[in-house]
Amino acid sequence: xxxxxxxxxxxxxxxxxxxxxxxxxxxxxxxxxxxxxxxxxxxxxxxxxxxxxxxxxxxxxxxxxxxxxxxxxxxxxxxxxxxxxxxxxxxxxxxxxxxxxxxxxxxxxxxxxxxxxxxxxxxxxxxxxxxxxxxxxxxxxxxxxxxxxxxxxxxx
Length: 156
Description:
Layout: H1 2-13, H2 35-42, H3 54-66, E1 72-77, E2 80-85, H4 103-119, H5 124-155
Antiparallel strand pairs: 1-2
Helix pairs in contact: 4-5
C-alpha cells in the first residue's frame, strides 16, 4: 500500500487531485473490447462474446498498441464510398466461438457486452431482453444443480 500512497501523492503534486475535479476514483476499470467488436455492436450485428472476455479485451489492447489509430480503409455505405478505421475491419484470429467458452468467460463477457450495448445506444428494451435471457440461463444452471442433487439424494 505504500506504493499506492506514493502514487496518489505524485498525482496530487502534479495537479491530478481527483477530489478537486469533483470525481471519485472508481474501484472498477471497465474492460475495453476491440474497435471491431464495438463497431459490430454499434451496427447491431452479431459479435462473439469472446471479444468481451478478459482475454479478448487484453488481446484488443495489445493489438491496438501495435496498430496505428489513424489508419483508414475504404468501405461502401449505400452507394457511397466512406473511410473507416482499419482496426474496425479486422476480426481477431484468436476468437473463440460462443459454444466453446467456459462458464466464467461467458459470465464475464455477457456483463461487459451488456454495458457496451448501453454505451452503443441500444434501445433499453433490447438490452433488457438480453439481460433477462442471460439471467434465465443462470437460473437454469442453478435449477439443474438442485434437481441433480435431489435426484442423487433420492437414489441413496
